[in-house]
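Colleagues,

For the teaching module next term, I've prepared a clean inverse folding example: a structure given as tokens, and then the sequence designed for it. I'd like students to try predicting residues themselves before seeing the answer, so please don't circulate the second half yet.
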């Protein structure tokens, strides 16, 4: 069974940085594309960014230039480095992948204070 576990969230001031991690198990991580989504109360979950198996990344426009993605295949871990954080980045962040079906992590709270 695939399991995705996020960590690294918390409270940070505007302009600060956080790094989220997503550790995967139960799958062949090194060949899987991985994704981050986020959600705020009352809104639909929105895509944040993706990293392919070969390390290519892409992001939603609102985080381009501020967020980066990386992966360590030896550790089955994906990282989301978030810099220059804004209050509108406040959300629960979810790790996601497709491995025969869609899997989600439980999510982790990121709060950016103004």
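(Answer key — instructors only)
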């Amino acid at each position: 069974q695939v399991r995705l576990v996020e960590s690294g969230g918390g409270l940070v001031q505007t302009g600060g940085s956080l790094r989220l991690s997503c550790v995967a198990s139960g799958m062949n991580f090194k060949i899987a594309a991985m994704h981050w989504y986020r959600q705020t109360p009352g809104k639909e979950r929105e895509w944040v960014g993706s990293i392919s198996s070969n390390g290519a990344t892409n992001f939603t426009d609102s985080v381009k230039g501020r967020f980066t993605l990386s992966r360590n295949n030896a550790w089955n871990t994906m990282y989301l480095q978030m810099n220059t954080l804004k209050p509108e980045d406040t959300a629960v962040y979810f790790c996601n992948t497709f491995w025969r079906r869609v899997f989600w992590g439980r999510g982790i709270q990121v709060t950016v204070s103004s």
